[in-house]
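TetR/AcrR family transcriptional regulator
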Amino acid sequence: MSGIMESAGTEAARQLPGGCGDTGGAGQDRSTRHALLDAALDVFTERGYTDAGLTEIAARSGIPVGTLFQHYGGKRGLYLTLWEEFREEQEHRTAATLAAERSGGTTDPIALFVAGARAYLEGAWDNRKLGRLFADDDGPAGFDALRRQWDRAWVRRNARLLEVDERRRAGRVRVSVLTTVIGGAARELGDCGDETEAREIVDEVCGILIHLSARAG
């Protein structure tokens, strides 16, 4: 998509040791898949990735452990699939917002950037349980490297959206700061007590982004 979010794709997840592989075979039953992912999310958020047990995930989902392995290969596969689904949902949301803004005649790079950032932050609030999970440092081996790879791609895409010359160090640093502001705000939203507080944070952050973006070029 254009700016704000960029998918590392399922292929990137497969590059991790013991990656999830094909998690969505044509014959996979959707209800089974959802039950396993919902149970995995609950257990991961309650116990952390390291202490999460496959037996508990299977028991909560009502799906045999063997079926869990068949579909996801274990904890890593479940975690990476949750990550991909979170990323894809955020990606679709921000892509739709940018497309609507452009269709409405918006061409200003800062206006587009802030609109996309707002959509991303609203998605972070809507999906805050997943957001809290991925904000923690407890994940499968290699996940930090994958997240850093995606973060670098995110900065590059935002630089293009803001029409910043990536060859200029000052421009790159400013876009990196802007991207970090969005990521930090998304983590804060995970701890918000209610929607009113979340909206206040989103509005405040978008104001900050407008101010900082003014000199991004």
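thats it. Residues 146 and 194 are 31 Å apart (CA to CA). The two ends are 21 Å apart (CA to CA). bye
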